[in-house]
Design brief:
Elements: H1 2-8, E1 29-34, H2 42-49, E2 52-60, H3 74-81, H4 85-91, E3 104-105, H5 110-120, E4 126-127, E5 149-153, E6 161-162, E7 169-170, H6 172-185, E8 194-198, H7 201-210, E9 218-221, E10 230-236, H8 252-259, E11 262-270, H9 272-275, H10 279-290, E12 294-295
Helix pairs in contact: 6-7
Length: 297
């Protein structure tokens, strides 16, 4: 019965691994479209590509400026598994494939999209929504006149710590700042419209505990939130040390994902002294200063 349904369907939606299921064994398609292709390992992508008919067309949609495939094995990653087919084709000089860039973004307030556009896309992004269509959410937060983007400086006394399992980072003082910001947001925004993200699993665990009174509020790692969006996003940067060590928070692709999930309001909480020792973060903090976006809670 399932085979008949799939055979008669005009469009079949599946995960990449699902394309290899026995129920799809004999199916071929005139077009295969792979979304989030820059996050797919090449072997996974090839499972779907293998379903193309002899005259089929392939469309890969992705963003090489965002996070690559996740590889548990560093050895496999270094040997090439961490490079998606999407990224490899873009780098292939002999490739006859000319990529097309989708330049109009419909998610973010123009103020939120401005710096990522300049920093990661050569200023090519165009806004399909106006500032008037993305007003800052009503809340107890002191939104600047420029729009729904604020930076909250976590004091240097709020030092980072190693998580109990010894595998991650956390910052309890920063958790409290995030909780305070969330509480103010809830004065005018539903919990389900708020996303809280952090680069570290250890911090995500602490944030979930701090925000457990609002179970509808989604709390995830930055990596786990790629491809998602919320009306308001709270970002907890965690790192606070005298060396200016940001770990993988320094990865430009992770920063890009973190700053581009919000539709109406973005709140970034972090220690300025640590962040500005990284050139990329320093550039974003200059943008914050130029638009007077740093506030106190």
């Amino acid at each position: 019965m399932m085979s008949e349904i799939l055979t008669d369907a005009q469009v079949v939606c599946s995960t990449l691994i699902g394309c290899g299921a026995s129920v799809m064994k004999n199916l071929e398609f005139d077009m295969v479209l792979v979304d989030e292709a820059s996050q797919a390992t090449e072997p996974r992508a090839l499972i779907a590509i293998g379903k193309l008919s002899a005259v089929g067309r392939l469309v890969l949609i992705g963003d090489q400026q965002q996070l690559p495939p996740t590889c548990v094995s560093k050895q496999a990653e270094n040997l090439g598994l961490g490079t998606s087919l999407f990224a490899r084709l873009l780098k292939e000089k002999e490739s006859l494939l000319g990529p097309t860039m989708l330049k109009v973004q419909y998610r973010m307030h123009p103020l939120i999209s401005k710096w990522p556009s300049d920093a990661f896309y050569g200023g090519q992004l165009e806004n399909g929504v106006s500032a008037a269509m993305r007003p800052p959410p009503k809340s107890g937060l002191p939104w600047p006149s420029a729009g729904g983007l604020i930076f909250v400086n976590s004091p240097s006394s709020s030092q980072e710590a190693t998580s109990p399992d010894g595998k991650s980072k956390m910052n309890l003082a920063e958790c409290e700042l995030v909780r305070q910001a969330a509480e103010r947001l809830l004065q005018g925004t539903a919990a389900e419209d708020i996303g809280v993200i952090s680069p570290y699993r250890g911090q995500v665990i602490q944030l979930r505990r701090a925000l457990q009174a609002w179970p509808a509020m989604e709390v995830k790692t930055i990596d786990g939130f790629q491809g998602c969006e919320k009306r308001v996003i709270l970002v907890s940067c965690v790192r606070c040390n005298s060396q200016g060590d940001l770990g993988f928070l320094a990865d430009y692709r992770r920063l890009n994902v973190a700053l581009t999930r919000a539709q109406y309001g973005l709140v970034v909480v972090g220690n300025r002294e640590t962040l500005e020792k990284n050139p990329l973060w320093q550039g974003w903090l200059k943008f914050v200063d130029d638009h007077d976006l740093q506030v106190l809670l």
